[in-house]
Each structure stands twice: as structure tokens, then as C-alpha cells.
Design brief:
19 helices, 4 iron, 4 sulfur cluster binding, six-stranded parallel beta sheet, alpha/beta
Length: about 650
């Protein structure tokens, strides 16, 4: 039987409208299929990423992917966070690593698991990048409208990185975070961990805390109904260490600038096999050593020769310059030292300040008192001279270095105790000074005006400096960032203590544009406290920006600025002080007391060093006028030479900087 079909009207695809209709239909179908496929794929990835696998291989839907935050100024917390992140990942506990500066704190309410590594910065406050996060947390915790259940679904733990030398503000940020999280209903899975960068136990404290974190998370925070933190003991597990950690640590050791609070995770590799005679900066059977392996490595990278456990020596660029006959430093112009015969050293690398213009970028320790192993003064002096001579010998064959000057350089006649740190902190400073004077080596000691009692008990030295970095309490706190709470009282007492010293005394002012250059009247008021013989006024030296200092070339005054400031303050003294000398190359000017050092119109700012040593050896009382010497005309303020010794050969570097685009 023949099958018949109804007749339909023929559809023609030759027309343009029909073709466009078909194309639109196919396109819409393709887009829809792609969208469905992509959506399902993303949903699958999201589910997998937010589930933490358990030991039985099945995911625990109650534990979402956590956040590991770091709060950092110099990189310490970031380094530790990377270390913990690697450990968590290798333990099968995925976390997202987050810098709080890029995080929206409003999203905290959505988090179920948070770990925080937080550094404390100035005055117990968080670093600048974390202020918004910290303020939001504080405001939310104090706002009754928010309530105490905002973070009730969030488990958290906090580890703090700070300096115990700061007393009550030690790890204040981490402690505040812990308190605020609890105040908003958060469940703290472990007590706050704390690491002291000055105590030498940061690495071990963080490793122990990290192991407890891993155990708590692997146990889902509870073990047989008991809080994980209650079940920990001191002997948990072996120390963790990964190849990734080692590579990060070795890379960090190569960094140019490392702040004291930036030494975490940068100890010599545990796999390097290097012999270390101390553990975390402590001797096995005595007081800790001031210079940890990390601090030693970074100071040596900057050219320092570390002596014993707390001293250092370094060859000055001006020592090299005068060895080559290319001019001496400002002390040569102002006081007649022979720069090529000057040794720059310190018996204490530690300091009680963290000044914004620190040349050493805070790679040295800080402390309020001597708490370290103490080396013998004689050994320090002998070691310093030995290392200094070795560095001088390396100048042999350098263009311009004559055999005569090299021989003189190998016999130092001056010691600048101003290298780094606070030399007056060293308990045997008087013994050390005696050892130098026995060798007829003059002493120029700089103190940061935080130890007035030490100034009072100091034996006669050639010249005693006090750094006067600011003239008001507020600006001194901002510039010097002192550890002591009573820093201003210590500062003014230190200046007052100078008045009773019979040898030459100096106020050293470092001008920083935008910080302390507008305080001329306040500076002058300080003159009456110490009545110094001299006032050195110097423009700040730009040493490059770092995480610890935001100074730029905009903060560096011109020599004309320093001269104008010096002339103005001399004028305010109404003749008590006058501008005596200058060293244009160092951007430095010297004020001197006219009634002592200007005789018949001639300045006597130079020192008769042989006379000084004879006076010290005599044991008799003497004062600063007993060993003064005439200042040469080329060093006097306003001379055409600008403080440059005409017996030296002026050398000007060629500047071939590329023009800015």
C-alpha cells in the first residue's frame, strides 16, 4: 500500500530573513549550553575548594576554607605567614593567604576560620596598612548595635610579633585583635601566641604555635570532647621544615635592608650545616648574646666587622678618602683629626631608640638596659684595632694611597665611638676608654641622651656628644621613636648632665626637613640646660627608603638651609655662640662658644691631641680650654675652601645619571 503524506508548503532557506533566524537560534543554543557547562564547572570547583579533607578521605562540610591574615610593616609577619601557609598546605589544610590591607573587614562575618599573624608598630599601634582593619574591628566591638554574635560562627587564633623592650606595648596589636574577636563572639581555638624579636625566641615560639594550630585543625578543634588547646604538651611532634621554607629564608638573607622586626624566618638554614654556638641567640649556660646569627649576617653584609658578641668596627668612607689624599671628614675641618687615622667603632650595637633617619636601618638590637653577655674591654679594643688594620691593609695599591699614608693609617690616633647603637650602655665603658687613652688614641663618644646616669659617671674623654634630634617632646618622640616612656625626662636630664663635664661637649643637631627644622626657638631654649661648648648642625644623610623609614630626598636640607638655620640660632644667642666652621661637603656647620674658643678674634676649635693625652696621664683636673688649638683659616666659616683642606686634592665624581623620562 502506498503511503501518502500531506502536502506542506515548501520552506525556502534561500531568503535572507530565514538564514538570519536560523543563525540566531543556533547561537542562542550554543551560548546557553556554554553557560550551563561553565556554571556547573565553577560550582564544582567552589565546592571542592571550600571543603577540607579529613583523614578518612571524606570532606567535612562544617569546615570551610580558612583565611590566613598577616599584618606587617617590615615583612616579618608576611614571612611567618608564608611559612605557616606552607605547613598548612603540606598538611592538607588549604588556607587563603591574605594581606589585611587588601581585605574588606565587613566580610569577616562570613568567615568561619581565621588565623592572624600581627606585628606591633610604634606606640603599640598597628602598621599603617592595617589601621583601617584595626579601627573597624575596634569600632564594631564597641558598637552595641553590632552585637556580640557577629563572629559567633568564626573560629580564630592570633600570633603576635613584637619587641619586649617596649614594655606594656609589647604585642599590643595581637592582644587587641584577640580581645576584639572574642568580644564579637569569635571562638578562640588557641591562646594567643607571642614572639619577641629581641628575646631571641621568635622562631621557636612560632614553630610551637604553628604545630598546635595544625593539630587543632586536624582534630577539628576538639579531641574526644576536650578542647585541643587543653590537650597540648611541650613535646608535640618534630620540628617542621620544608624545602620551600629554606629557599625563602636563603632569599631573605640576601636582602639589603632588614629591620630588627624583620628577622623572622631568616635564620641560617637548618640544612646548611653551619656551626652555631648558640640557640636562638642565647648561650646554653649563660646570658644571651646581643648579636644573633641573623643580626650578624645583615650587619656584616653592610661592611661591619662584628667583635665578640656585642661590638663592631667599620672603615669610614672618609678614612678611605683621606688615605687617597682626597679630603677628610668634617671632624678634620672642625677639630683637626686625621681622618685616615680614625677608627669608627662601638662597644654596644644595641640602642634605646629607633630613629627615622637611622643609617643602619635598624638592623641592630634595641634595649633599655644591658641584659646580654659582656665581653672584656681589653679584648674589644684589641679586636677592634686588629680588624681596623686589616681593612686599612686592603687599601694598599688603591690609586692615590701612598706608602706613608698607609703606614699612618695602620696606627690609628682617633676612635669615633659612634658607629651604631648606644656605646654608653656598655657597663665597662670607662675601662674601654682607658684602654684607648693608654694607646694615645683620642675618643669621640656619641650618646642618644637616654642614659643621664651613665653620662654623669663617664670619665674624661676627648669630646662628648649628645644627639639632640628634636626640640620638643612631641617631635622627639616622632623622630627618635624611643623605647623609654619617660624619654623626655631622660633627654633633658642628659643635657643637664653635660653642664658638669669639664671636657669638650657638643650638641649634635640633625636637621630633617618636614620634621624638626621649624623648632629654632625651642632648640635655643635647650642650650641653657647643657651649655655645650659646641653645637654641630648637620643635614640628614639620605640612606635610601626602607620599610622602617619613609624619608626621601625631599627631607634632606641643602647646605644653604643648614647655614641659614645656624646663623639664625647664633643670632638668637646674642653673641654667646657664633658660627665658627663649616664643611660644605658634609652639609655641616659648627657653632662655638665665643668666650671660650674665640681668642683675640681667632677661633680655637681644633684639639691639641698630645696635650690632651698628657693631661689624662697626669691624673689632674683639666677643662676644654686646656687642650684647644688654633683653627686654620680654610676651615673657618665663610672661607672660600668651604672647609676643604687645601693640602688635599679635590676629587669630583662625574655624574652620568640618565635623565628622567
Amino acid at each position: 500500500m502506498k503511503r501518502t503524506y500531506p502536502n506542506f508548503p515548501a520552506m525556502s532557506f534561500s531568503s535572507t530573513p530565514a538564514r538570519l533566524t536560523l543563525l540566531a537560534l543556533l547561537s542562542a543554543t550554543s551560548i546557553y549550553c556554554f553557560y550551563r557547562s561553565r556554571r556547573l564547572k565553577l560550582l564544582k570547583l567552589s565546592v571542592n575548594a571550600n571543603l577540607i579533607p579529613q583523614s578518612n578521605g571524606h570532606p567535612d562540610v562544617s569546615l570551610k576554607r580558612g583565611k590566613l591574615f598577616f599584618v606587617t610593616q617590615t615583612g616579618t609577619s608576611k614571612t611567618l605567614a608564608h611559612q605557616l601557609h606552607g605547613l598548612l598546605t603540606s598538611s592538607g589544610i588549604p588556607f587563603a593567604l591574605v594581606d589585611v590591607k587588601s581585605y574588606e573587614p565587613e566580610d569577616l562575618a562570613k568567615e568561619s576560620l581565621v588565623l592572624i599573624i600581627a606585628s606591633t608598630w610604634e606606640d603599640g599601634k598597628p602598621p599603617a596598612d592595617a589601621k583601617f582593619f584595626a579601627n573597624w574591628l575596634a569600632e564594631s566591638a564597641d558598637d552595641f548595635r553590632v552585637g556580640s554574635l557577629l563572629l559567633s560562627e568564626c573560629r580564630f587564633a592570633v600570633f603576635g610579633v613584637g619587641s619586649g623592650a617596649y614594655g606594656d606595648s609589647y604585642n599590643a596589636v595581637a592582644r587587641d585583635f584577640s580581645r576584639r574577636f572574642r568580644g564579637l563572639g569569635g571562638n578562640e581555638i588557641l591562646p594567643i601566641g607571642e614572639g619577641d624579636v629581641d628575646g631571641g625566641e621568635l622562631d621557636s615560639a612560632f614553630e610551637e604555635w604553628s604545630r598546635k594550630i595544625v593539630k587543632a585543625l586536624k582534630g577539628s578543634g576538639l579531641e574526644n570532647g576536650v578542647s585541643a588547646e587543653q590537650s597540648f604538651n611541650d613535646g608535640i611532634g618534630d620540628e617542621f621544615y620544608s624545602d620551600e621554607d629554606e629557599e625563602e629564608e636563603e632569599d631573605d638573607l640576601e636582602s639589603v635592608v632588614v629591620d630588627l622586626e624583620d628577622i623572622a624566618g631568616k635564620a641560617p638554614s637548618k640544612k646548611s650545616g653551619g656551626a652555631v654556638t648558640q640557640t636562638n641567640g642565647k648561650l646554653s649556660n649563660g646570658p644571651k648574646e646581643m648579636v644573633t646569627p641573623v643580626i650578624r649576617a645583615n650587619l656584616e653584609k653592610q661592611g661591619y666587622k662584628i667583635l665578640g658578641s656585642h661590638s663592631g668596627v667599620k672603615i669610614c668612607r672618609w678614612t678611605k678618602s683621606q688615605l687617597r689624599g682626597r679630603g677628610g671628614c668634617y671632624k678634620h675641618s672642625f677639630y683637626g683629626i686625621e681622618s685616615h687615622r680614625c677608627m669608627e667603632a662601638t662597644p654596644s650595637l644595641a640602642c634605646a631608640n629607633k630613629c627615622v633617619f637611622c643609617w643602619r636601618h635598624h638592623t641592630n638590637p634595641v634595649g633599655k638596659s644591658w641584659q646580654w653577655k659582656m665581653d672584656d674591654a681589653l679584648e674589644i679594643v684589641n679586636s677592634a684595632l686588629d680588624q681596623h688594620r686589616k681593612m686599612i691593609k686592603q687599601m694598599k695599591g688603591v690609586p692615590g694611597v701612598t706608602q706613608e699614608r698607609l703606614a699612618e693609617g695602620l696606627s690609628p690616633r682617633h676612635c669615633a665611638l659612634s658607629l651604631v647603637g648606644e656605646p654608653i650602655m656598655y657597663p665597662e665603658i670607662n675601662t674601654l676608654v682607658d684602654e684607648l687613652h693608654k694607646r694615645r688614641i683620642s675618643t669621640f663618644l656619641v650618646t642618644n641622651a637616654q642614659f643621664p646616669d651613665k653620662i654623669k659617671m663617664l670619665k674624661p674623654i676627648t669630646q662628648l656628644y649628645v644627639s639632640v634630634d628634636a626640640a620638643t617632646k612631641e617631635s622627639l618622640k616622632a623622630v627618635d621613636r624611643p623605647l623609654f616612656g619617660d624619654f623626655w625626662e631622660r633627654f633633658t636630664d642628659s643635657l643637664t648632665a653635660l653642664r658638669d663635664k669639664h671636657q669638650r661637649t657638643v650638641y649634635r643637631l640633625t636637621l630633617v626637613k618636614g620634621w624638626n627644622t621649624e623648632e629654632l626657638d625651642a632648640y635655643f631654649e635647650l642650650f641653657s640646660l647643657g651649655q655645650p661648648d659646641f653645637v654641630e648642625i648637620k643635614g640628614v644623610t639620605y640612606c635610601g627608603s626602607s620599610a622602617t623609614s619613609k624619608l626621601t630626598m625631599e627631607n634632606v636640607p641643602w647646605h644653604a638651609d643648614v647655614k641659614a638655620f645656624s646663623e639664625a640660632i647664633a643670632l638668637k644667642s646674642e653673641g654667646e655662640y657664633e658660627v665658627a666652621c663649616e664643611h660644605a661637603h658634609s652639609c655641616c656647620v659648627l657653632l662655638a662658644k665665643t668666650d671660650r674658643f674665640k681668642v683675640n678674634g681667632q677661633w680655637f676649635t681644633w684639639i691639641d691631641y698630645e696635650k690632651f693625652h698628657d693631661l689624662v696621664a697626669s691624673g689632674k683636673s683639666f677643662d676644654s680650654t686646656d687642650y684647644m688649638a688654633a683653627t686654620p683659616s680654610w676651615a673657618v666659616y665663610g672661607a672660600d675652601e668651604g672647609g676643604f683642606d687645601p693640602d688635599q686634592a679635590r676629587y669630583r665624581k662625574e655624574r652620568n645619571h640618565r635623565p628622567k623620562p
